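Please, structure for the following, as tokens.
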Amino acid sequence: MIKIGIDVQSSQGQTTGLGVYTSSLVQSLSSENRNGTQICLLASERKGDLNTLERLRWENVELPRKVKEEKIQLLHVPAFSPPMAKSCRVVVTVHDLIGMLFPNQKGWPSRFYWGKWLPRRIKKADFLIAVSEHTRKDVVRYLGVAEKKIKVIHSSGHEGFSPIRDSARLQEMRGRFGIREKYFLSVGTLEPRKNLQRVIQAFARFRREAPAGKDWQLVVVGSKDFAYGKVFHDMTDGKNLSSEDISFTGYVKREDLNALYSGAAAFLFPSLYEGFGFPVLEAMASGTPVLTSDRTSLPEVAGEAALAVNPEDVNAISEGMKLLAGDEKARAEFIQKGFERIKHFSWSKTAKETLAVYESVLT
């Protein structure tokens, strides 16, 4: 019997995009695995999130030991880095090269890990899965990996999200987070590639120019580290925006995120760089029109179902906000297109194609 080991460390602790990918893939692999392949889940005994040094220990000491103990024939690392020492075939999912192209993580261990260590290690894998065509092209271009060693298998991400129309539930959610009735939603942090500064600039322009613009709020799901103080002041200086006009929720649970999407007039995601872009599908599944970027993987994910703009053009972002806030016909069209678009993505499809990769690597 073939024994596949999957590093599920990314799904432990506070779940981010990598954790969603890993846990969703594992669940679907269990459903789609019909050839008797044994799936063995591998994780550290330490509970919760690992810091960079702990992760390096897991990947290069604990994980290889578990692989040998379990007599794994193929190891799949769906997030982070594969071990230095290989005792079996190794497949790695590459989500992006953000750490290499945007080296702005906090602290030198993270900059080293994401910018140097990870890119070098994934080159050593027997086979790579890229979550988008854009990521595949980046791996070929920047790491020099042969195209024949890479298979594009799209992620999914809309499962578990649906439109919430219960006004009482939405009102409760707004009250709990201190959110006004009219708001735009953004998901991201201070990372420059998330483009939050231009979103704030566009929002300030929207408030000046749109009818009843002062009634609107920008809600940001993500780190609250910079919600107040110098960084917040620098991003909002001269824009006549207070800390109440921009609400930072911090990390939220998926059910709250679903409600936040559902209550928003539009979801703003004009990122400068994404390997895939889970939030685009999450918002579409929640029945929320999407404004996104016309570059990297985002056109590949959104198709014609989102309003795509130049992410470096503040005026284009602001005009898009006006359209999605005020044109009911345009809103309805984007919402319906979003429902159709998400049908192109499913974890079941991702799992089937991943199982086929395992088979090809072992034969």
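Residues 3-156+346-362 form a domain with the Rossmann fold fold (CATH 3.40.50.2000). The longest helix spans residues 52-69.
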